[in-house]
Description:
alpha/beta, single chain, 18 helices, elongated, Rossmann fold, 15 strands, six-stranded antiparallel beta sheet, six-stranded mixed beta sheet, 556 residues
Amino acid sequence: MIRHLHIENYALIEHLDMDFHPGFSVITGETGAGKSIIIGAIGLLLGQRADSRSIKTDAKRCVVEATFDLAHDALDDFFKENDLDFDGSECIIRRELTSAGKSRAFINDTPASLAQLKELGEQLLDVHSQHKNLLLGKEDFQLSVLDIVANHQELLNTYKTEYKEYRQLENQLKEALEEAKNGKEDEDYLRFQVNQLADANLKEGEQQELEEESETLEHAEDIKSSLYTAANNLQSSTDGADVLGLLKQSLSEIQSISSVFSSAEELADRLDSCYIELKDIADELESQAEDVEYNPQRLEQVNERLSTIYTLQKKHGVETVEELLRIQEEMEEKLSRITHSDDFIEELQQQVNAQKEKVLALAKKLSQARLAAAKKVEKEMETRLLPLGMPNVQFKCSVLAIPSELTGTGYDQVQFLFNANKSGEPKPVSQIASGGEIARVMLSLKALIAGAVKLPTIIFDEIDTGVSGSIAEKMARIMKEMGDHERQVISITHLPQIAALGSHHYKVYKEETEDATLSHIIPLNEEQRIEEIACMLSGEKLTQAALDNAKTLLGK
Length: 556
């Protein structure tokens, strides 16, 4: 739950530091004082889109930071999976905006993405504002209520996994059918290409070997002449002073003085090594010279082979034989699929059918669980709405199973039906309920699912719209009851009956200065609280009767 909130240079707030407490708290203040600004700031911490226009005029940046107490919340897995520091008890979320439009987010001083903020925020906080009453008209919200009450998240996750596999198989089948259709038209040309590559009988590495051989054949005479010249220079010369002969003579001279000159033996060994190496080189030069032969016929064969390779490379837009071999393999596989497309499609169709049966079986289990949850919701909602000024309320959960219309959540279409009167048939709640009735329905739903979701903090932003008097008091008691079960419930309200039941009371007010209009929020002590509720009862003019009434509401 929120332990501390810090806001700096956001909209009309220059600086705000506020401690919050467990249980039921209320925030009051005149219209336009800045209550919605606080909700907007908290929204930034939940990963909502940032707008640089929200930064206070003339400020370079704004900061919103909240400290959450997570000692009783099992969120260790989130921090491990996202590699975020966590001491097991406290979490600090910070969002910074600059006037240049840049936004940064941090979780425990570690940079975080908006996706991470949203994921964490969904487990920490639920802000219910007036526009969220529109969720009553959204089928996915109504479905999610039943899923929460059914408490079958594991089954739902299994279904989603299998449904995803089913959709992937369906797409594969669709692609296979399309490929088969197009493939039949292109089969002849594809087969021609495959045969052309197969007839070429390509081998890895042959291009380099052929190019080297072509170079050698084209310069055979030059190579042969150079090799013979080098060999002759080592072994013979016209004047008899060949290199090997001179080296042999030098070796003999050094060996003759080895008995009288200590260094001669080492020098003789080195000369002997040189002689052996040069003799070997001379023999190799002669051997290779004899092997080199100018062969115009072989040169023509090599160049024709290279021409075939170059033509295929140009045609397929590649540069190596290895790439051509891969293309050949891919084409052969594609041709095989076309040739055996009927068998392949039949096999895929069987997989799709089998997977669909598996998905339908899971969807049936989900539907059965939802039907059971629907009865529970109907009973609970009528029980909760009865004391909220709806003695004859009818609340029904329509669960329509349409197996032919599988979706990512099953095949159920869910609709909440409502009628505040005994007579008449219930109709979709968003179509028939008044603003006040919708507010009571939403509060009752929130109270119903709050325990299952186990959200640490719930903020109600003017949930009391359209209600007053004793009904408002009963709504307040529901929120107080929610806050009494190790949960933090904060209600932003205009009604004194709700404000009076809060365990903690905060007031938002506006201050006009020479330079700007500023919003502030302060906790109220007992005396201030009596005056605030009295003002809510009587308006600007504070009367003794209003003060007495306020004390009565507060149980003083």
